[in-house]
Write a structure and sequence with these properties.
Blueprint: H1 3-17, H2 23-73, E1 77-78, E2 87-89, E3 93-96, E4 104-108, E5 111-124, E6 127-139, E7 149-153, E8 156-160, E9 163-169, E10 174-180, E11 182-187, E12 193-197, E13 201-204, H3 222-232, H4 241-253, H5 257-268, H6 275-292, H7 296-309, H8 316-324
Parallel strand pairs: 6-7
Antiparallel strand pairs: 1-4, 2-3, 3-5, 4-5, 5-6, 6-9, 7-8, 8-11, 9-10, 10-13, 11-12
Helix pairs in contact: 1-2, 4-5, 5-6, 6-7, 7-8
Length: 329
């Protein structure tokens, strides 16, 4: 009720209580007072409805934003579902566990990939990284103005505009077989491009030119040898964290898990790391211990310490799954 309306109702009440007015005037005043009360109730109801509408709109907005973020972080869809926890995924990496009972097919927009057995695929920005395993890729045809599909494997980059191929990779070797279409392969060691068509097979490591008293060895440039030597050495305290993480991803993709774990442990000793960097590195180390090295006890000790240090971790949903496997440790 507004201030003017309140004052008007007050005057009506005072006149109604006066003994000097006639009964007919009292009846009119009573009717006016009832009207004022009804107006007040109507205004109160409208305010409540407006408040309720605002609250409902806010809740719907929050729910919509949550669903948007869910879709944004999942760059793939598992056609045959993620049953038995054999598919572990986050916003960058999907890992197919060895215990998956049958091939797992993922849809990535217009493209599809079918994994057989333990495999790992990552995506950062628009570049894919194939860590290990066996997979069959069906890449939809790109138009001339569209960007090609590009993937990194241990020795180089695979680039396609639309084709189907089979890919197999472990820490020591790999094999690419083109089923249809054309694939361009760019080698890291000398930036040479190899063009493959249907029926062609490419394997790595490549044998070097040999003499009768020489064994077959991969052709590797000095720059790559230097990089491998860096991987075995201690972490340079001045080395950017991004460079260290690139080395970690490469070691993990080659299944050199012990070296990758040592690299993370050395990096965690750097005093200049902030809380967010420590959180990310510790979680990556825990995943490596649990998923790849199978050191459940060490991983569980790390997870329990991690939960205390980062109670509001961005990985808390994934952390719950890992901690559920730590009962008894």
């Amino acid at each position: 009720m507004t201030k003017d309306l309140y004052q008007e109702a007050k005057v009506i009440q005072q006149r109604y209580r006066s003994v000097e007015i006639l009964a007919t005037e009292k009846q009119k005043l009573w009717q006016q007072l009832q009207i004022q009360v009804a107006v007040k109730k109507t205004q109160r109801t409208q305010r409540r409805r407006s408040l309720a509408a605002i609250v409902v709109s806010w809740l719907l907005g929050c729910i919509g934003l949550w669903f948007f973020n869910q879709e944004d972080t999942r760059w793939f869809h598992a056609k045959n579902q993620e049953r038995n926890h054999c598919v572990i995924a986050n916003h960058e990496t999907v890992t197919i566990q060895a215990q998956c009972p049958e091939p797992i097919t993922l849809t990535m927009g217009r493209d599809q990939v079918t994994f057989t057995g333990a495999s790992q695929l990552s995506r950062k920005d628009k570049l894919f990284y194939f860590g290990y395993g066996r997979a069959r890729f069906h890449i939809a045809k790109r138009q001339q103005q569209e960007e090609p599909f590009k993937m990194q494997v241990s020795p180089g980059f695979i680039t396609v505009l639309g084709t189907e191929w089979l890919l197999e990779q472990s820490w020591s070797h790999g094999r690419l077989e083109v089923v249809s279409g054309t694939v361009s392969f760019e080698w890291f060691d000398n930036q040479e491009h190899t063009l493959l068509t249907a029926g062609d097979v490419l394997t790595w490591p490549r044998p070097a030119s040999t003499t009768p008293d020489q064994d077959h060895k991969p052709v590797v440039k000095d720059s790559l040898n230097q990089l491998q030597n860096r991987e075995h050495s201690a972490v340079n305290q001045d080395e950017p964290l991004q460079v260290i993480m690139e080395r970690f991803i490469m070691l993990r993709s080659q299944e050199r898990y012990h070296e990758a774990a040592d690299l993370l442990k050395q990096t965690l000793e750097r005093p200049q790391l902030n809380s967010g960097q420590q959180e990310r590195l510790l979680f990556a180390l825990g995943q490596l211990l649990f998923d790849q090295l199978g050191d459940v006890k060490a991983a569980c000790v790390l997870w329990q310490d991690y939960e205390k240090r980062f109670p509001k971790s961005r990985y808390r949903e994934k952390l719950k799954i890992y901690l559920a496997n730590c009962l008894g440790f």
